[in-house]
Amino acid sequence: MTVPTTPTEPNSPTGSATPPGPSTPPGRRERKKAATRQRIADTAMRLFLERGYDSVGIRDVAAEADVAVTTLFSHFASKEALVFEQDDHFEQRLTQTVTGRTPHEPLIPALRDEVHAMVRHCTADGSAAIYRMIDETRALREYEESMRLRYAESLATAIAADPEFARTTTACRTIARFVVDAYALAREASDPQAAVDEIFRMIEAAWDAA
C-alpha cells in the first residue's frame, strides 16, 4: 500500500487527510518537532523529484533541511521512510476504523469509506510523479510491499480481537489482505473511486461467506 507524502507548501500538513488530534492541544515542543519532521519530509520529496531518488543521499536531505543527520534519523528510520511519510498514520487509521466503530456498525462499509479516503489522498494532483518514482525504484517497491504486509497484519489483529465478528484467524487475515490490496488496485484504475466500490462488493461477499 503506497501512502507517500505529497508535495506541499513548507510546514503545511501533508496531503488531504489529517490525523485525529489529541484531546488537548500539543505543546510548543511537540509543535516544533512536528514542524521539523514535516520540513524534512517536504525537503526530501522535493530533492527526490528534482534529482532522482538514487541521486540524493541522507546527508543531502539533512543539509538542505538544515538539520543534523542524527535529527533526521530521530524522525525517519530510513531513506525509504522519507517517501512514505504518513506510513504510521495510515496504519493507525485502518486499525482505528475497526476499534473506533460505534456498537454494531458494519465493518466492511466502514473500511470501504476509509479506503475511499486513502485513495483520494494518494490520487490527488501532484501524485503521479511520486508513484512513477516508486515504480521505478526497487528499494521503494520493496519498502511498499513490507508496508502492505504490516498493514494487513495490524488490521487482521484488530478484526480478530473484536468479539462481535467471531471469525477464524484465517478469515480475518484474508479479509485484511483483501482490504489492503484494494487500495493498490483502485489507485491504478482509471476510475479509482468506482474501483473501490467494485472491489468492496466482492470483499463484503467474502466476509459474509466467512
From TrEMBL:
Lineage of the species this protein comes from: Bacteria, Bacillati, Actinomycetota, Actinomycetes, Kitasatosporales
Residue span, HTH tetR-type domain: 34-94
Annotated segments matching region Disordered: 1-39
Molecular-function GO term, any one: transcription cis-regulatory region binding
InterPro entries: Homeodomain-like_sf, HTH-type_TetR-like_transc_reg, HTH_TetR
Keywords, in A-Z order: DNA-binding, Transcription, Transcription regulation
Protein name: TetR family transcriptional regulator
PANTHER family, alphabetized: HTH-TYPE TRANSCRIPTIONAL REGULATOR BETI, HTH-TYPE TRANSCRIPTIONAL REGULATOR RUTR
Residue spans binding DNA: 57-76
